[in-house]
Amino acid sequence: MAGQKIQAPKGVSEYAPPRSSAFEFVRESLISPARSAGYQLIELPVFEDTELFTRGVGESTDVVSKEMYTFEDRGGRSITLRPEGTAGVMRAVIEHGLDRGQLPSKLWYSGAFFRAERPQAGRYRQFYQVGIEAIGLDDPAIDAEVIAIADAGFKKIGLTKYRLDITSLGDSESRAAHRVDLVAFIATLDLDEATKSRAALNPLRLFDDKRPEVREAMTNAPLLIDYLNEESRTHFAQVRKYLDALQISYTLNPRMVRGLDYYTGTTFEFVHELLGAQSGIGGGGRYDGLMAELGGQSLSGIGFGLGVDRALLAAEAEGVISAETFVSDLFIIPLGDLAKEKALQVASLLRNQGKTVEIAFGDRALKGAMKGADKSGARYVIVIGDSEISSGTVELKEMKTGATSSVKIDSLLTAL
User: Fold this and answer.
1) Using CB atoms within 10 A of its CB, is residue 245 exposed (0-12), middle (13-18) or buried (19+)?
2) All domains of the chain, ordered by start, with CATH?
3) Whole-number average pLDDT of the chain
């Protein structure tokens, strides 16, 4: 019907001012430590050949079996909106030969990802992530660095009420030994056919099952961490030693498996205590067979994906962030055409020095312009008229307290 409002699709996370400033701050805070550690941007398509995810992520995962947005394009190809970042990064690394240069190849990405889930607080069909991947070396010190970068991002936002869970999913030899006993244990359980089918594809998936009856049934299941061979045990011990040296506290969680099939060795998750059911704010791990599975060299890699939406919800829950944090430094009200010219000059100079400055446009009367300054939430306001231009002095008013002080226009930067 003509004129009817069109709304955003259900379950999409989108951000409009003023909250979008908080979203941007969270995203930039999560990216910043990766840049400082020499990781470089890789910008990827939001859709890929479906086979990339069925092969790379794993057919037994909920992501592939239930949650992907898959469609046929006009050329008859099966295309999927990206549900996660690592498989796409790995495809690009192989395609552009980044695995044949300086190793490790250290990359970061950010953007929208898509899963056909039931929307609820913190769980969206379109959501945002920041991620990094370090590809090419199997060094436990890299594992520690990757975890430390994630931790630094959360600390930069100001988060404190989260914990880091870590475990090791071992190498193929360790997992094969564990699988024998785990499959034998699962065979003794009374499970429905769908759950049995999932377990047949990947028995570790049952550790990730949220149903109380399955959790109870798995209470005495053999744990993979008890089956680690000497090499995997040594690697994981080294990772923990480096985390201790970095004074990053963690909790051993041997029942953690994560939701993607490609993880091996070091695996980790950050969990926030104030977010209820959707408490995971980010996680990742090592993936030793993924590159070979996607047609590349047999190189190891490790990375993480951090949820920007969840980290923002966590920051708001802790009260460390609000829309008021991101107001302008100064609001300029020009009275007359000559004053408008001067306002543009002053704003330009201050903006070049890193200040956020707004101008009252539209030739509003002083009373209306002051209302605009109030609504903008700016910290300070000045009025520029003929007398201010001739004297070179303005009254700088602090909006919160109403306090004013005379300031030379040339000294505004210092005063702010």
Assistant:
1) exposed
2) 19-171+229-318 (3.30.930.10), 327-415 (3.40.50.800)
3) 91
